[in-house]
């Protein structure tokens, strides 16, 4: 089946938002700065994440960067800083950055980071805040903060230990080495590494498969996995029981059974 053309959103300055068949692609678009996030980009990213969360037709979000880079972090040269109000205390700027990171992390639908080129600092935090991460073989990843006299932000104090364990998390945060894509994959920071010329096609395939999946079940699976990291086995089983009872009562589950019996692909509608 031919892919529908991507429909871009208009009026944006620092990101490109395109929609096609349930897939929303958000491209950070400041290639002259390796997509470093200025105040306008932080606000536009937040708006894009909120719009994705609210839309019933948007099923999966792909976050990527333009011009051969993912995101080199926050643009510390921007006079508007992070939240667009340069006279605010630094804490308020960091709280706004935290709002963007938390909104991405808590999206109830699948998210995929497509990392080509550099992902550093807050840019790496955005990538790791997605559910799945695919990197091109020439990608480079670093926490970078300690090299700038800073501590980690954008959720990395939460994400790194859970992804790779505390000893390796401390190593990456303290030393801020630049990792190759292969090194990142070996640590468990990324799900897959693919040749650069296959990155778009690989992520497009994953995104289409996710968009065609059962929205309710995927949303609850995402929530269950995140809760399961901080609950007991008994609590996890109870939460699974509640979620599965919702699934069994959904039209999507009935559609899945009908499709199985008819030996066809199901068409999930999210209800």
Topology readout:
Blueprint: E1 7-8, E2 15-20, E3 23-28, H1 39-54, E4 60-65, H2 90-105, E5 111-115, E6 118-120, H3 122-128, E7 132-136, E8 140-142, H4 156-164, H5 166-175, E9 179-180, H6 181-187, E10 192-194, H7 199-211, H8 215-228, H9 233-248, H10 251-262
Q: What is this structure, in a nutshell?
A:
The protein contains ten helices and ten strands. The protein is of the alpha/beta class.
CATH architecture of the largest domain: Alpha-Beta Complex
Strand content: 15-25%
Average pLDDT, all residues: 94
Number of helices: 10
- By helix and strand content, what is the structural category? alpha/beta
Strand order of the largest sheet: 1-2-3-4-5-7-10
Poorly predicted residue ranges: none
The CATH class of the largest domain is Alpha Beta
Largest sheet properties: 7 strands, mixed
Number of E strands: 10
Polypeptide structure, described:
The protein has 271 residues and is α/β, with parallel strands linked by helices. The protein folds into 2 domains: 7-211, 2-enoyl-CoA Hydratase, Chain A, domain 1 (Alpha-Beta Complex), CATH 3.90.226.10; 215-262. The chain has 10 helices and 10 strands. It has helices at 39-54, 90-105, 122-128, 156-164, 166-175, 181-187, 199-211, 215-228, 233-248, 251-262; strands at residues 7-8, 15-20, 23-28, 60-65, 111-115, 118-120, 132-136, 140-142, 179-180, 192-194. A 7-stranded mixed sheet has the order 1-2-3-4-5-7-10, with helices on both faces. It has a 3-stranded mixed sheet with strand order 6-8-9. Helix 1 links the parallel strand 3 and strand 4 (60-65). Helix 1 packs parallel to helix 2, helix 4 (156-164) crosses helix 5 and helix 8 (215-228) packs antiparallel against helix 9. The two termini are 25 Å apart. The model has no long low-confidence stretch (mean pLDDT 94).
